[in-house]
Amino acid sequence: MKTLIIRGYPGVGKSYVGRKYDYIVDLESSDYKWIYDDKVINMNKELRKSTSYKQLNPEYPNNYINKIKSLIGNVKVILIAPDEDIRIELDKNNIEYTICIPDKTCKEEYYNRFVNRGNTKEFIDIRIDNFDNRIEELMNQEHPLIILKSNEYLEDYLKEKGIIDD
After folding, report:
1. What is the pLDDT of residue 36?
2. C-alpha distances in Å from residue 43, one per residue of 10, 49, 129
3. Closest CA to 106 of 55, 47, 150
4. Regarding beta strands 98-102 and 4-8, do their DSSP bridges make them parallel or antiparallel, or are they unpaired?
5. What is the pLDDT of residue 40?
């Protein structure tokens, strides 16, 4: 099975399609990046991200890259975050991937997506304050690009390309 790896900007719909289709894996990097104190293991995901009860996993990002490698050929799509440390390791390991970003004109729409899905103010501020620069950086990387227009989600693209069907 050919596996498509997509580095997706926050808010494009990675988690949604990862939950909806069993042949798509949304590989949350924070599950590999952090080691959580036992006190927070059962807390909700958003609270875990904002807590001080975590430490950097010394095996990251290699543990994350190894998980990606183990999924290649076993699932149709692997969805990953556009973190720079992951990009470096993907490129070092010659792992092909596509980048999914919103169109530059969608900044306000993505602000609303972040608010509506309950992201923290800190998360939103970082993503919106750096939106234009980050989109430009991702556009300039030498990998195939998916650029989502207003009101488009990753699922729309995957359906259009026949990668998923309902």
Report:
1. 78
2. 22, 10, 28
3. 150
4. parallel
5. 53
Q: Whole-model pTM above 0.85? A: yes
- Return the ∠ at Cα 51 (arms to 45 and 57), rounded to 5°: 80
Catalogue all structural domains in the chain, each as residue range(s) with its CATH number: 4-160 (3.40.50)
Considering only CA atoms, which of 78, 75, 85, 70 is closest in space to residue 14? 78
DSSP one-letter string for the chain: ---EEEEE-TTSSHHHHHHH-TTEEE--THHHHEEE-GGGTTS-HHHHHH-S-EEE-TTTTHHHHHHHHHHBTTBSEEEE---HHHHHHHHHTT---EEEEE-GGGHHHHHHHHHHTT--HHHHHHHHHTHHHHHHHHHTSSS-EEEE-TT--HHHHHHHTTS---
The tokens for 30 are 């924070």
Mean pLDDT by 10 residues, the chain (166 residues): 95 97 95 77 56 82 96 97 92 97 98 96 96 96 96 97 87
